[in-house]
Write a structure and sequence with these properties.
By secondary structure, the protein is an alpha+beta fold. The chain has two domains: 76 residues; 168 residues, Nucleoside Triphosphate Pyrophosphohydrolase (Alpha-Beta Complex), CATH 3.90.79.10. The protein is built from eight helices and 13 strands. The strands form four sheets. Strands 1-2-4-3 form a four-stranded antiparallel sheet. A four-stranded mixed sheet has the order 10-7-12-11, sandwiched between helices. It has a three-stranded antiparallel sheet with strand order 9-8-13. Helix 1 packs across helix 3.
């Protein structure tokens, strides 16, 4: 494996820990981590070298933790990325950790991408079961937040590729503000930028983010939302029902 592939594997384990490694306060045991990187198992010296370089070169991204009960034990944490928080005029006033933003009801900037094919069918994704809210619900092609050192359109194109494996041009349509609360007490208080694009290729979904996909006619989608709203994300329903610019643009 290349160093980049090793780093991606490390990030995935630190984020999801889907192989059951020992943890402390959300961090993963350093020694166990170095023995469970795909492609370099039993080459812990190589993995340790990469991990040490990451800890040294990206101190804002990774943290090394020593539990108070054993100063010789080491645990590694992937720090929560910070997203853009804004005022009511949509001016960026700072950056804050994503979960804090959603727990503390802070207005922030986000985007929603809608990809259509030549038949004017919309590509939907089903959110993975491990998502922090709205898990397992059908939603638009992809969505996310604006992170530090990004512009909103580049962030949308990057996220489209990360989640769905699709490269295509995007057009900004409009932005709107919405507010929603969820059963786990998290809150979406967003100014959401809508982007639209065209593609006829089926996605190569990222299973860490997306569990399924489908193409659907907008009118059929609207009918199904009326019949089964609990199957869809809040913001998808909001956009489909209340923002006519989307459906006018694709005709």
């Amino acid at each position: 494996m290349t160093k980049e592939e090793i780093i991606n594997s490390i990030d995935t384990i630190l984020k999801y820990n889907n192989i059951g490694l020992s943890t402390y306060e959300g961090a993963v045991h350093y020694g166990e981590l170095t023995n469970h990187i795909p492609g370099v198992k039993y080459q812990s010296q190589i993995c340790s070298q990469v991990m040490n370089e990451l800890l040294e070169n990206f101190p804002q991204r990774y943290s090394l933790i020593h539990p108070p009960y054993n100063e010789f034990s080491k645990y590694v944490r992937l720090n929560e990325p910070k997203i853009a928080i804004v005022n009511k005029n949509d001016d960026i006033i700072g950056f804050e950790e994503k979960m804090k933003v959603h727990k503390d009801d802070i207005l922030h900037r986000a985007f929603s991408v809608f990809i259509f094919n030549d038949r004017n069918e919309l590509l939907l994704q089903k959110r993975a079961d491990n998502k922090y809210h709205s898990a397992g619900l059908w939603s638009n092609t992809c969505c996310s937040h604006l992170y530090e050192n990004q512009n909103i359109k580049d962030a949308a194109k990057e996220r489209l590729f990360v989640e769905m494996g699709i490269h295509c041009s995007l057009t900004f349509l409009k932005k709107f503000e919405y507010y929603a609360t969820f059963e786990n007490s998290l809150i979406e208080n967003e100014i959401d930028y809508i982007f639209i694009g065209k593609s006829n290729e089926n996605p190569n979904i990222n299973k860490d983010e997306v569990s399924d996909f489908k193409w659907i006619d907008i009118e059929k989608l609207k009918q199904d939302i009326d019949l089964q709203p609990d199957l869809y994300s809040y913001w998808l329903i909001e956009i489909i029902k209340n923002h006519k610019l989307l459906t006018k643009t694709i005709k």
